[in-house]
Amino acid sequence: MEPLPTPCPAELIPDASATAAYNAAYKAAKEQHAVFVAIECQAQRWTVKPDALTAPAHAISNAVYDAICRATLHLIRSREIRPDSSCGPVYFAWYDLEHEHRARELAAALHAALYGNLGPLAQAVPHTPA
Which alpha helices (H) appear in 2-88, and where do they start and end? Predict the structure, then answer.
């Protein structure tokens, strides 16, 4: 599996709905020491799953973490994701998105943010600082 570019276009975010697909994408990210990101469909709703544990040397700045937490809270308050969605600090999960396209957009934005580029997250989630 090729490493994901940074920023990663939404259409390249892996669909890890099947266990084998999830395991393959996670293993590839771990072998590449890269931040893992994928989406998966559960009961006709979508989940965004980035994970920085696959990149042990990767540091997430306080500004990035704060922006991701603000985005998470905004998405919870707007009822776009479930209240039990996770905001890190190294593993993130945004549950219950209605559409695959939106899940891909948010996954790509989170991936970019985890690499220090907050622009896509600010575009995808209003009231998130760039």
Answer: 19-31, 62-77
Cis peptide, bond prior to residue 89, ω within 30 of zero? yes
d(CA 67, CA 72): 9
CB 110 within 8 A of CB 68: yes
Q: Note the pTM of the prediction, 2 decimals.
A: 0.94
Angle (nearest 5°) at CA 35 between 34 and 38: 120
Q: Could you give the count of Cα atoms lying within 13 Å of 10 in the half-sphere of its Cβ?
A: 13
Whole-angstrom distance, CA of residue 119 vs CA of residue 98: 23
The answer to whether 102 and 32 have CB atoms below 8 angstroms apart is: no
Predicted confidence (pLDDT) per residue in 41-61, tens digit: 999 999 999 999 999 999 999
